[in-house]
Structure formats: structure tokens, C-alpha cells
Amino acid sequence: xxxxxxxxxxxxxxxxxxxxxxxxxxxxxxxxxxxxxxxxxxxxxxxxxxxxxxxxxxxxxxxxxxxxxxxxxxxxxxxxxxxxxxxxxxxxxxxxxxxxxxxxxxxxxxxxxxxxxxxxxxxxxxxxxxxxxxxxxxxxxxxxxxxxxxxxxxxxxxxxxxxxxxxxxxxxxxxxxxxxxxxxxxxxxxxxxxxxxxxxxxxxxxxxxxxxxxxxxxxxxxxxxxxxxxxxxxxxxxxxxxxxxxxxxxxxxxxxxxxxxxxxxxxxxxxxxxxxxxxxxxxxxxxxxxxxxxxxxxxxxxxxxxxxxxxxxxxxxxxxxxxxxxxxxxxxxxxxxxxxxxxxxxxxxxxxxxxxxxxxxxxxxxxxxxxxxxxxxxxxxxxxxxxxxxxxxxxxxxxxxxxxxxxxxxxxxxxxxxxxxxxxxxxxxxxxxxxxxxxxxxxxxxxxxxxxxxxxxxxxxxxxxxxxxxxxxxxxxxxxxxxxxxxxxxxxxx
Length: 494
What we know:
43% of the residues lie in helices and 14% in strands. It is of the alpha+beta class. The chain folds into two domains: 2-248 and 412-482, no CATH class; 250-403, no CATH class. A six-stranded antiparallel sheet has the order 10-11-12-13-15-14, with helices on both faces. Strands 4-5-7 form a three-stranded antiparallel sheet. Strand 8 (262-265) and strand 9 form a beta hairpin. The chain is globular.
């Protein structure tokens, strides 16, 4: 039996927050927002910017901006280790200890691997009822450099495994909490962490205001290029750090992977095993066959010109590759293709399951979860990889495919200092606003946020409280490892 608690109502009067009296994580009962998967924009052609912003402002009556600063765990909140174990379901058992080990390296790393737990928590927080295409796992480590099809390097969101339509607030709050945890992780003061999150909120709010006044196609074409990325740096040290990141990103290509991890063996190019993170599974497993089958189906999702380009390459090897934190244990791999003796293309194939947010925001409209990821990525990113597509194999596992690396370079957070974290918060807020404006109504959200710092202050307060919660959950996980409830696959200090 669900007890309905009205947190607020959107312009159409739709309830957008439900509370489960007794939510069992294993049965995935709906606790949160009951959204369908279609974004709605209203009659924007017949309403002026002022009218839409005024409509957004009215939403403060049902969900005040200051209310976003409140956080308290629900009385029926599941044990964080139980939620973690549930999220391990369906993963490769041999790899989940690596996932646990990576999450144990710090509270920030734990946070990166616990998107499902935060979705549970966010489902009971105040919401306006305005929807966008969510990143779903919006944290500092998911922003960085990536190449456009024209080989121009831009700053943008990087990963979209959890993407699905939902409340815009969820991405912003997850990003804010990640900055607070990252700041603590590198030894910054609480004042530094506060300033970073305030910078994030202000940048998101200001950029949305700008976007709401732009023409629709200008919003779609907006991106953060290298000039803006470097110019935004507040001091010489930060500028040099960004220039170094750009130089590293330019080197992260198929050619770099080929030089480091591919060798000629008996006249055939082979990916070099680096277990347990890069390896060829035993021949008794179906991984190679499954990847190849999914790859053949993936080709059909490409446009004719890109499919013809891909036909110039032949598959010569396939290997498993362990990536990230939240993705560890899913079936991910690399496919080595060659068009000539020294002409490689390295594609990454990743298993796509249901979004961790789905049980709270409603099912995706896409039956293939790889398609869900790809379509979400295309909505959110300024420009996407030309080889981005999806596929499935006979056991109905879903996959998506993209280039490996392709100048993709996330932040080296451990090398950050106060000014760089604070500057990065502004840049991430700017990028997130652009991503949300592509699918949501920037004027409605901007009208709600307003010109004051009321939401920024609330975001900083929430981020601190949720960082505290994540650190407590992290300690619960450490205790579970010490008690033998969880296994770890790398040497960690617990």
C-alpha cells in the first residue's frame, strides 16, 4: 500500500512525489516521481518569455526554493549495503569485488557507485514537477573534454548510463553533493566546498536565464569550446592546468590505445591482456560471440554514411575491459577493428541495463536500454560520437557502442586545489544548464530559480548534508567489508 504525500504539483496539476510506506529495494516498488518518458514543453509558441517565467515563479508556492536545502533520511531508508548488494544483481560475480574495492577508496568514490541509493533519497525531496532529460549520474567526474565529429575539443557531460527523463533538481543536487565530497576528499575547507557549490548554483541559474532568451536553434548549437574553457579560468595556475588537460585529451585516441595495448601475435593483431582490468575471457564463455552479435545489430542503428565508413574496417579482436566505478561488473569490452596494417579503430561496447532512476521516475519509452542511453546522450551532449549506436544479442542483453576514448578526458580531481574546484563548479553548472535546456523549458526553470541566490544557498546546504550522509554510508560499507558481508578484489585500507 502506497501512502501518497503531495510534495508539490506542476502546472498541469500532476502529482509528482509519492512516498512508499514500506519500500523493499528488492521488489523495486515505486517511491518517487511518477513521470512518463515524454518531455512536454507546453504551448511555448503562443506564450511569451515573460509568461513562461511567471509560470515558473508560481511553482515556488508548492515547492519553495529554500526547501531544497533540507535533507533528512527517511525512517524506512534501506541499509546502504543492502542497496549496494541489490545494485550488484545481474553483474559478473567475478568483477563485483573490484567494484566494491573502487568504492572503498574514498567517500567520493562510494558516492560515484551509489546512484541508485541517491535516487531513492531524492524521490522524497521537494520538486517543481518540471522535467528534463537527466544525466542520472551527474557528478564532477562525469564532466570533461570530448571530441566533436569535426575533431574540435569541447567541455561537456561524458557518461549517460543512467540517463532518463526526470526532475531537473536531481542532476543539480547530485552534482552539488559531488563537489562537496570531492572538496573534502582533497582536504579543502568547508568554506571552499560551500563556495564551489554556490558557484555551481549561480552558474546553472545564470546560464539558464541566458538560454531562455536565446532562439531554439542557438540553444541546440551551444557548446563550450576550448577558448571559453581556458578563458573561464580565474588564475594562471588554473589556466595552465586546463591547458595540460587539453594536451592529454588530444592524445587519448584509438592510436594511443593501439600503441600501448595491441601487439602482433603470430601475424595477427591482438589486444594485450592486463588482468583483471583488460582480458580475454575463457573460450567456454560467450562474451566474444555475444559482443560480435551485438555489434552486427548495432550497425543497423547507424546512418548509411557511417555504416559505409565502418565497413572499411574488419573486426580482428574483442576483449573485456573493466571501466569506471558504477559500471564495474557489467559486460563491457573493446573491439579492435583494422582498415589496414597501421589503421586502427577501437570501439567500446558497454552493457546497458535499466536506469537506476527508473523505479522512481517511470519506465523508459525505449525497450532497448542501449537505445535509451544513446538517445539520452544525443539530447544532452552538444555533439556526440559519430559511431554512437546500440545493439542487442540473442539473450536479450542490451549494449551501446561508441569510440574508446576519442579524446575523452575526465578531471584529475586528486590534483585539484581550491581555486580549480571552485572554477570547475562554475563550468559544470554552465554545461549542465545547456544540457537541460535542450530537453526542458529553460524559461520555466529560470522563472522558478529567479535572480536571487535563494536556490544557490539551498543547494549548498543540501550538498553539505548529503555529503555527510554519503560519508556515513561509506563507513557502513567499510564495516560490512570488515565483517565479511562484502568482498573486495583489490588491496584497500579498511
